[in-house]
Amino acid sequence: MIQPLFDQKAFLSFLNEAQKSSFTSKPTNQAYSPPNSKQYEYDQDPFRYWSIYFGSLYFSGQDIVFLKNDPIWTMNYYGGITSDITDIKEITKIYQVLNEAIFLENQTQSLRGPAQMTKGSYLYSNQFNGSIALFTGAENIKCMCTGIEVFSLTYQGGFLK
Questions:
Q1: Domain boundaries, the chain
Q2: Out of 32, 105, 137, 160, which could bridge 128 as a Cys pair, Cβ 3.0 to 4.6 Å?
């Protein structure tokens, strides 16, 4: 296992704040941005967080944390709306559930959301495997009234060497 050369508790706290910030801010304007991408940055010395993703109903992205100018940690993810829902109000509710789950602070993994959370008629679940150093995971949102999965996402990552 890769052991970081910095305070892991400070790193987890930074990562949690950076992820929350990216969900509440507008994308940053970069000198170079790949077409149709959304990018977010968050700086708190000595760390810098950079996130980029493509898509909306189904999307793919990557988060990277730098220590000074060296990339030290990454997470890749892919997923989105899995049902035939086309009503924008219903899609908005699903993404609100996802955002609320991510906003719940979890200092033991601090990557996505809690193991389980209920919001209205939706059940959010997060299956996290590993540690912040090396991990995989999957998020799902299910409509409890129909039993149908409406959102699914897989993620993986860890410390870079």
A1: 8-159
A2: 137
